[in-house]
């Protein structure tokens, strides 16, 4: 396999893996532990969960943009 194609496929696998891990962590904390839902009014746990969710979302977007920003198009 050509090195460019191999590097491209590794980036794709790493991107998908990072996104799946991020989704599983947030799903576990939010849905399974109940921090994504309000009972009668939001609690401190809800605020912490949604704060973590937004901060980690911004972080993963910046991380993946940085990871893919240096990629050159095939054939260049």
Topology:
Blueprint (H helix, E strand, L loop, with lengths): L2 H30 L11 H26 L7
Description:
This protein is an all-alpha fold and 76 residues long. The chain has one domain (3-69). Helices cover 74% and strands 0% of the residues. It is built from 2 helices and no strands. The protein has helices at residues 3-32, 44-69. Helix 1 (3-32) runs antiparallel to helix 2. The chain is elongated, with a radius of gyration of 17 Å. The mean pLDDT is 91.
Radius of gyration from the alpha-carbon trace, in angstroms: 17 Å
Number of domains: 1
Strand content: under 5%
Low-confidence stretches: none
SSE series? HH
> What is the molecular shape?
elongated
Mean pLDDT: 91
> How much helical structure, as a percent, in the residues?
over 70%
Number of strands: 0
Number of contiguous helices: 2
In short:
With 76 residues, the protein is mostly helical.
Question: What keywords describe this structure?
Answer:
mainly alpha, single chain, 76 residues, 2 helices, elongated
